[in-house]
Amino acid sequence: MNQQILKFFETNTVEMSVSFDAQGVITHTNPAANVTLDYPMGLAGVHISEVFAGTFEKTPEGFRTELSFGDSEKPVMVYRRNRTCFPARFRYIHAGIPEYEYVCLLIDVTNEVFLERRITQVKQEADEAAKVKSEFVANVTHELRTPVNGILGNVRILQEKITDSELAGTLRLIERGCNDMNNIINNILDFSKLEAGKFTLEIREFDFRSMIDYVKANHMPKITEKGLQFFVTVSPEIPERLIGDELRIVQVLNNILSNACKFTSVGKVSLEVLMTSRKANRLELFFIVTDTGIGIDKADQDKLFKSFSQVDASVSRKYGGTGLGLNISKQLVTLMGGSINVESEKNKGTNFTFSVWVDIPEDEVDSVPMELDDKTQSFFETAEKEENTLYVFGTEDNSNELEDKMSKLVLAVEMDNWEKAEMFMEVIRQLTENAPREIKTATLRLKMAVQKADYDKTMETHSNLEALLPKR
Questions:
Q1: 359 and 257, same structural domain?
Q2: 467 vs 456: CA distance, rounded Å
Q3: 322 and 345 together in one domain
Q4: CATH number for position 100
Q5: Whole-prediction pTM value?
Q6: pLDDT in tens, 44-70
Q7: CB-based burial of residue 53 (10 Å sphere; 0-12 exposed, 13-18 middle, 19+ buried)?
Q8: Comparing C-alpha atoms, which of 318, 314, 226, 307 is closest to residue 265?
């Protein structure tokens, strides 16, 4: 590189350029260096150690530095004429030309350093705020649980003593509200722990089929009460005993099955468990929860796993919930090494799948096959959702369900159980949603009578609707 090229480069570069001789005396600087270092007349004659104190040291022979030549940038402190300093990125080139023996190129990084420090400060403040929020939520939820459980305990005592049916119905509503509140409190507490990174899995050995039986027994009453079918199947290849967090697997299953029951008025809910992979003493469990409920538009499915999010506001008003359950489930499944997904179509049901990894106890290892069974392979190769015709007015499935729910509505009214009557009425409304106008009008009138708990009007409007329905 000749002297003319060096001089042109030095004069025109936007970086600061400082050249010095073998004695460490500065010979040339460009305008950018003169302005930034506050030397209006240039730095010629100034020793390099004045500008890079601590990086270059003045010696009788000239200068000494531990910096090496090369294209890589190094951080240094650069001193102005008034002895104030600023951080810079520095490149050091040995040109070997008189008056340009050495060339330093500098970039002022004061703003970058400030931003980095500010980002670190903001992150620390955010972490502290998250910690405070997490502790506050934990304290509040624990405080809320005490009075809620107190109310729940007293309600259950009263239920054993009360014989009046109307008052007993009111107590059932209070009990249901307390249970819902406890579920919300638990969700908020789990969400807070997960967000704060303080959530840990409790890994222990458990009986897998006993766990499935417990889940089935927990949901069977609610599902069958709605007149739904409930099917549970477990692949025989899955061993009796496994090692994992049983409580959290149950929590995810409970959340998905509760949603399936909540959003399904007719048809069925099914749970299937398969073994989909094995690596040494670990295996992957694959859970499939299918329902014939209201379904979800494809455009809305991304909202399902976001915190405090539901498909739309009407879902929250109609069915309740915080919108935290599936977000928590997703985080729990991720902690257990798996993933969760949904496939759904409006009015054609929903298919939730999730996987988790668990360990096999030493004495069970030899009993677990290394290959996937034919049923599992078939599911992944040809899995297709069945057409749900329950909501299509006039089909055989729709007519059968309508007949069944109309009969159960009358039975609930005769037993003076208006809460259950409203539940069956909602199913009837969904089953006639795409029916002709006169049937939809008759359904609306029946619904209004049920909501008012008017026996005579309910029986009258029930007969009117029944007369309009197609005969089989």
A1: yes
A2: 17
A3: yes
A4: 3.30.450.20
A5: 0.54
A6: 999 999 999 888 999 998 999 888 776
A7: middle
A8: 226
